[in-house]
Amino acid sequence: MSLLSRIRNVFRKDALHGEIDEELADHLDEAVRAGRSREEAERALGSTLRHREVSTDIKLWTWLDSVRADVIFGVRQLRRRPTVTAAAILSLALAIGAVTAAFRLTDAVLLRPLPVANPQSLFVIAYTHFDEINGKTEEADSFSYPQFRDFREAVKDRADLMVVSYTSRNDITYGSDEEMERAYRQYVSGTHFATFGLRPAAGRLFTDADDQKPGGHPVAVISYDYWTRRFGRDPKAIGRTFRAGTVAYEIVGVSEYGYTGTETGTMTDFFIPAMQNADAINNPGWQWMRIWVRPKPEVPQSQIQQPLQASLSAHRRERTKLWPAGAPKSRIDQFVNAGLTLNSAAAGASGTQKNYRQPLLILGAVVLLVLLIACANVANLLTAQTAAREKEMALRVSIGAGRARLVQLMLVECLLLAMTATALGALFAWWSAPFVVGMINPPDNPVRLYLPADWRVLGFAACVALGVTILFGLGPALRASGVKPATALKGGEDPHSRHRLMNGLIAAQVAFCFLVHFLAGLFVATFQRLSTQPTGFAVERTLALWTGVKGAGDAAKRPQNAWLDIAERMRATPGVEKVSFASWPLMSGNGWSSEVRVPGRAQDTVSPYFLGISPGWLETMRIDLLAGRDFRPGEKQAAIDEKKQPVEGVVIVNEAFARKYFNGENPVGKSFESFSRDNTLVRNPIIGYVRDARYRNMREPIRPTVYVPLDKTSTASFIVRTTAAEPASMAQSLRRLVSEVHPEFRVSNVQTQAELVRNHTIKERLLATLSLFFAIVALILAAVGLYGVLNHAVLQRRRELGIRMALGARTSHIARQVGGDMFLMLILGSAVGLGAGLASERFVATLLYGVRGTDMRLLATPLLTLFTAAFLAALPPIIGASKTDPSVALRSE
Amino acid sequence: MAKPDTLQGSLDLLILKILSRRAPLHGYALMTAIIEISGDVLRVEEGSLYPALHRLEEEGWIAAEWVTKENGRRSRIYQLTAAGRKRLPVAEERWTAVSAAIHQVLKMA
To answer: What is the ipTM of this complex?
Structure first.
């Protein structure tokens, strides 16, 4: 019969035995019926027990049956020593859970293919870009629409090209302005859904016809996820209208289930045709999107890359002709000759991926080290156990068990441990992966990932369980099965060989533990240094209200006094201390930098930052004035008037500016030139000189900064200093107030300045928190392992120690005897860990800030922690050893 | 069966052959059939009959089913399967070859 029935028979062995017995009994009955005597027939048939055994072995899968027996035996063994089993399972579960969670995250962020047709044949165009700020060449992938048109012209029909904008968060409303809600938007080409092979879940998707005329297609496709969350999958959602900015969009369809845009880490809620970004369509300076490429079948990549590269260079050469005169040739060449590559985008393309690739891989490596520590632990526990079971093994060998059979017996036991641990670990991963995702981004812009527990995760967990079993189980299993009955029953041949293995594992544990601690130290120090970095302005009790005026373009711009009106009204609110406004809050990620010309100085490669501010802003932000004065209401920035004549403006500069352009002297009264919108040089007399403040970034040195009056604008951020310690509590009332004073003004977002600053250390905090957590776990595991091994050694040498004590050995001598090996292993492990730590530093260097691995403090901390933990773990067994009562120890054997 | 031991091979062959000619039989009836047909010459060792039956069953050459007898007890009766019917000529041929070889040895030696 089939394998299936043989497998089934393993689990119905009793029934099987009954059937065989019944058949043999029937044979005897027949014999009696044929006139033979029962005794004679029984004798002729022979032992029914033996026939039953033989037939049973024929009818079932004997190997599986032996495994079944081993499982039952294993469970019994594990339950006989609950403490050891629990310790092994818990440490493994924690480590396996961490590894699985790390895999889930890595898979979700970096590996999982987009749910579209043939994701492997999708590419995103990237180019090398020289970053002036940190002086490094980096890869960038943002393009303008005119460049896209050039590209499409260049590749012709060799590939499908399409535009996919960066995902951005928008305030939209289905009713009045009071009911604003947030949703994530992507502009896409009309061909987007067809090229991705996506089908509508309801309604229709875009076609090329939806993407023809700038601003002419107010239609939207929503994602299935958004349809579910916002509309409960109501088919009537199709045809509804929402307003984003000034445009009312009609929802025409829902995209296929599972597709939430191309930016892994952010889920797009609605898609609108690229042509709806009307202002950007003909603007070559506005880089707002990625360009996706799907080569036509059979077209080699090089045939697409070459025309794209040529088009990029040609396009950029044209652009440089508009650059202000005097740009250095090296910069022009760098810009024009930027190398173009086609990056595989099977797993999507997003900033989250770029930012978190390295941290995720490092965390993966750390948890892998923790897993190794846990494995070493369990291996040690098992080795100690097998010592106790040596006689059982010897007995098994004596009655004919083969070596393979014994290894199987041991491995089944290990697999039971590993599987229980994996099941528990899976629970841990199930809880912890979303928890970590929650830590990745600021709360008002959370990372959203698709984190299913599907075959990828389950398969990974199963592989980990198997791998771990082999890692910690095979050694002890081989050792146990290699037992020689004669010597084992006599008391063993080489009692020290086991200790060598256990000591080696301890040294390995110490080395891994040191490495984890060293890395954690680096990340924690980085986080501390970054987050205590002075910002130069007041962070606490400050609120930023991002505000915009309805309408678009110049029509929406309001003069400074309209904004000052609102600020005045806010100041009258109880609990408000100071109010002013700026183009955007400091450290918000926004920035504006522009070239300046200072008499007597050559052209610089790095341009200073600019920021538009209102009178009183410096005071609100508590940026001290060193010389000169603040702006007065009505003062304007330098510009070109209607008659195309340059008009002077006033500016305030910071210390870094004075250091760089005026040798650190007070620059008030001096002036420099900058470029107006149409590249005409305008003069800027300096009227104020202020202390340095951080503008965009915690890591870069504070750059020269120019503050200009924010005169006429359609968007700005009110900066409110409150008297209350919790400024966020005032957000709602202030938001309402803005629209009350001027109905066409609308607050789109409220953030505290503290939050804006904290957002710059999120990655560092994540790494510091998680690596610290794993360092603690690793320490506990290593300490438990150390304790277990030492305790075992003491128990094993109980008789020897008794004799020594009886002969008058001192307590200190006994302690040295017992702990000496351990100390040696500690030193050895730490040395190896130190070497590995120093070697690994360069892999994490880009994530560090202001710390070096060779810093004595960073090296001493893990060493001290490890030795303290080792001391504490070793203390109980050593005390136990020195308290050995010779009379008891010797009598017990 | 790579290297069937001759004795066992012969028992398998006898079982297959008898089942190919007769209605489904239980073990005891099979045994008596072998004894009768061979004219009392071949005496099957009763103990080895059942493992042989079970092995052939696992091979898929014979199939078994339980039938309830008049006294309420059950008998396990065997019959040839399609696969067993195909197997029979092979087994017969092998036996012929082996016995011819033995005959040869007896004559020449």
So the answer is: 0.86
